[in-house]
Write a structure and sequence with these properties.
5-stranded mixed β-sheet; alpha/beta
C-alpha cells in the first residue's frame, strides 16, 4: 500500500488563519511530524494520532522519518508554521525523497499545502508595508555562509526592496542583526520605517514600530520578523505603508483623473518604462540629461507632475524619503543609468573574487574530522607509540578528549580524512564514528584472562559498531557476572555468566532518574547472541523516532525482538557472582 506525504504550512499559529485544506490534511493523516513548538500549536487537532516531535536542528531527521512512514503506507503530515515552502520543510522532504530515487511516478504521493507566511501575517499587523517589490532574507548562517547573506543584504538594500528578515537573532547569533543594520544604513535613510513583529496572531504577540537607526534598541529574537521599508515607505497613525506607485499616474484626492482608462497604459503615460529608455553610453551625461528632459516633457503633456527630485521631496512627503535619492538635480532616468554602471562594475569584481575562492576551494576541500579512537574492543591499554601517532594525527590545531566510554575522541580540520584513518589503523588503533551511532562498550575481560566472551564482543563491534541510528546507543558487554564495567546500565547490556549471556534492556546512565536496564533474559546461548542483538538494533533503527533514546523506544513499543517491556516489575533475583566465576 502506497503512503502519502502532506507537507503542511498552517500559517501563523492561530486556528482562525489556518486554511481549510490544512485542517483537512491534518485530520486525514495517520502520523504527525513536526518541531515541538509547532506540535503544541496544533495539539487540539491531533488527538489520537501518532506524533513525532523533535527539537531545533533536527529537520533532516524529521524529513527522513516522514519518508520512512510513508514507505510503510501511512499518510504523514509534516507540519510547519507559516508556509511550508518558505524556510519550511517542503524542499527538504523533496531532497530526501530524491536521494532515494523518488520520482512523481512513484507510489508515494506528495502534496504541499500552502499557508500564510510570516512575511504576510506580520505585514497585515503592521499595515501595508509590502505593497511593492519585496524579498525575504534569513540571517541564520547555520546552513548559509555569512558572506552570501551579506551579498544578498547589499543587493536588496541597494535595489530598494522592502526586506523581511527571518531568524534575525538567537541566544548564540547576536552579531548578524547588527551587521545587517550596518549594511542597510549604507543604502537607506536612518529614518526608514521598521516593523518588529513577534509571535504574530499568537498569545504572546508583540508589535513595535521603529526606524532603521533605532531598531536594535528593541527586543529581537528568533520569533521576531523584521520588516524594513523602502525609500518610499512611511508611517501614518501607527501604520507602516509602502506606496504602490499610483501617484505617478493618478491624483489620489481627485474625483476625476487626468488620464482616462484607455490612456493609462499608453507609452507617453509611462516614460519611466524600459521601452521608453534609449540605449545610452555610460557616462554620456548630456544624453542622459536630454532623456531626462524628454521624460519630464512627456509627463507634463500627460498632465502628471514629474517624478520629484530630492530637492522637491519635502512638505507632505514622508521623512523616511529624505536622503534616499541621488544628488539634487538628477532625474528619475539619470539615477538608474548610473546605478547600472556601478552595479556592472561591482558584479564583475564579485565574479572575479568568487572565481578565485572557487579555485581555492577546489584546491583544498577541508572537513571537520571527528572519530573515536581506542586500542581495541577488549584492550584498554595504549602503547607509547600509539599515543605519539594519535598526537601527530591531531596536530597542533586538533583536539583530543578523554571520554568515560573507553575511547579518546579526536577532532581536527583536514582535507584528507581517509589518510588520517589509515594512519591510525596502521598503528593498531580502532577508529569508529561518533555521534548518533552504535558504540560497543566492552570491559577489559580482566586484562584478557576471561576471554570466552571476547570473540562475541569483537563480532558485534565489527557488524554494528558505528552504525547510524536515530540516537546514540551504547551496547555494554561484560565478561563475567561481576559486571564491574556497568553493562547493566547501558542501553543494551550483555553479561557473560556460566558460559551464557544475560540480557538487560533500557538502561539509563545519567539524570536523576538513572536506572539499570530490565533483565529480560538469562542464559542466552552465545552462538545466538549476535543474531539476537542485530535483530533488536534493526528494529530500533527502523521504527524509532528521530532523537528517541533506546529506553524510551523500548517503553513505547513494549517489545523489542522477543523481549517484552515490563512497566512494574519486582527486583529480579540474580545469583550473586564472585570474581572468578
Amino acid at each position: 500500500m502506497a503512503g502519502k506525504l502532506l507537507i503542511i504550512g498552517f500559517g501563523p499559529g492561530s486556528v482562525d488563519h489556518m486554511t481549510k485544506r490544512a485542517r483537512e490534511a491534518i485530520e486525514e493523516s495517520d502520523v504527525i511530524i513536526g518541531y515541538k513548538t509547532y506540535i503544541e500549536l496544533v495539539r487540539d487537532l491531533i488527538v489520537g494520532k501518532e506524533i513525532i516531535s523533535t527539537g531545533m536542528t533536527e529537520e533532516v531527521s524529521r524529513a527522513q522519518a516522514a519518508v520512512k512512514w510513508a514507505e510503510r503506507g501511512k499518510t504523514v503530515a509534516v507540519i510547519s508554521s507559516g508556509d511550508a515552502g518558505l524556510y519550511g520543510m517542503a524542499g527538504l522532504v523533496y531532497e530526501v525523497l530524491i536521494e532515494k530515487g523518488w520520482t512523481k511516478d512513484d507510489p508515494i504521493e506528495v502534496e504541499v499545502i500552502p499557508g500564510i507566511s510570516a512575511l504576510h501575517s506580520c505585514a497585515a499587523l503592521l499595515g501595508a508595508p509590502v505593497m511593492h517589490d519585496a524579498c525575504t532574507i534569513s540571517l541564520s548562517d547555520h546552513l548559509t555562509p555569512w558572506e552570501l547573506i551579506e551579498k544578498r543584504l547589499e543587493a536588496a538594500a541597494e535595489a530598494d526592496f522592502v526586506i523581511a528578515l527571518y531568524n534575525p537573532k538567537s541566544g548564540r547569533r547576536t552579531r548578524q542583526i547588527v551587521e545587517a543594520q550596518r549594511i542597510l544604513l549604507r543604502h537607506r535613510a536612518p529614518t526608514t520605517p521598521v516593523g518588529l513583529v513577534k509571535s504574530a496572531y499568537r498569545e504572546r504577540q508583540h508589535i513595535v514600530l521603529t526606524d532603521l537607526a533605532h531598531m536594535l534598541d528593541h527586543e529581537i529574537g528568533m520569533l521576531t520578523t523584521v520588516i524594513i521599508g523602502n525609500s518610499t515607505t512611511f508611517v501614518h497613525d501607527g501604520l507602516m505603508i509602502t506606496p504602490r506607485g499610483y501617484q505617478r499616474k493618478y491624483h489620489l484626492t481627485a474625483a476625476v483623473q487626468p488620464l482616462k482608462p484607455h490612456e493609462r497604459l499608453r507609452k507617453e503615460a509611462e516614460p519611466w518604462a524600459l521601452e521608453q529608455m534609449e540605449p545610452q553610453a555610460t557616462g554620456d551625461v548630456e544624453v542622459k540629461r536630454a532623456a531626462g528632459s524628454n521624460n519630464r516633457t512627456s509627463l507634463a503633456l500627460a498632465g502628471i507632475p514629474p517624478f520629484p527630485d530630492e530637492t522637491q521631496q519635502t512638505g507632505a512627503r514622508p521623512t523616511s524619503m529624505v536622503g534616499s535619492s541621488a544628488a539634487a538635480g538628477q532625474t528619475a532616468v539619470e539615477r538608474p543609468v548610473e546605478h547600472i554602471a556601478r552595479q556592472q562594475a561591482k558584479e564583475a569584481a564579485e565574479d572575479a573574487l568568487a572565481a578565485l575562492e572557487n579555485r581555492k576551494r577546489r584546491k583544498a576541500e577541508t572537513v571537520l574530522f571527528e572519530a573515536a579512537v581506542s586500542p581495541g574492543v577488549a584492550n584498554k591499554q595504549f602503547t607509547a607509540e600509539q599515543l605519539l601517532v594519535l598526537a601527530e594525527t591531531a596536530g597542533p590545531d586538533g583536539k583530543l578528549t578523554y571520554t568515560p566510554d573507553h575511547y579518546i575522541k579526536i577532532e581536527r580540520v583536514t582535507d584528507d580524512p581517509n589518510g588520517l584513518v589509515a594512519k591510525l589503523a596502521a598503528a593498531g588503533l580502532m577508529v569508529t564514528p561518533v555521534g548518533d551511532v552504535l558504540m560497543v562498550k566492552a570491559c577489559d575481560f580482566c586484562d584478557g584472562e576471561k576471554k570466552d566472551a571476547i570473540p562475541y564482543a569483537e563480532e558485534l563491534a565489527r557488524r554494528l559498531g558505528g552504525l547510524a541510528l536515530p540516537k546514540e546507543l551504547k551496547l555494554g558487554i561484560n565478561g563475567c557476572g561481576m559486571a564491574c564495567y556497568g553493562a547493566v546500565r547501558e542501553d543494551i547490556g550483555l553479561v557473560y555468566r556460566k558460559g551464557k549471556f544475560d540480557l538487560f534492556l533500557g538502561g539509563k546512565t545519567v539524570g536523576r532518574n538513572a536506572h539499570p536496564g530490565q533483565l529480560v533474559a538469562e542464559g542466552l546461548p552465545p552462538e545466538e547472541i549476535v543474531a539476537i542483538i542485530t535483530d533488536m538494533i534493526e528494529q530500533y533503527k527502523e521504527h524509532a523516532y528521530p532523537n528517541e533514546r533506546f529506553h524510551k523506544f523500548f517503553s513505547r513499543v513494549k517489545q523489542v525482538g522477543r523481549f517484552r517491556h515490563e512497566e512494574v516489575k519486582a527486583a529480579a533475583m540474580v545469583e550473586t557472582a564472585a570474581c572468578g566465576d
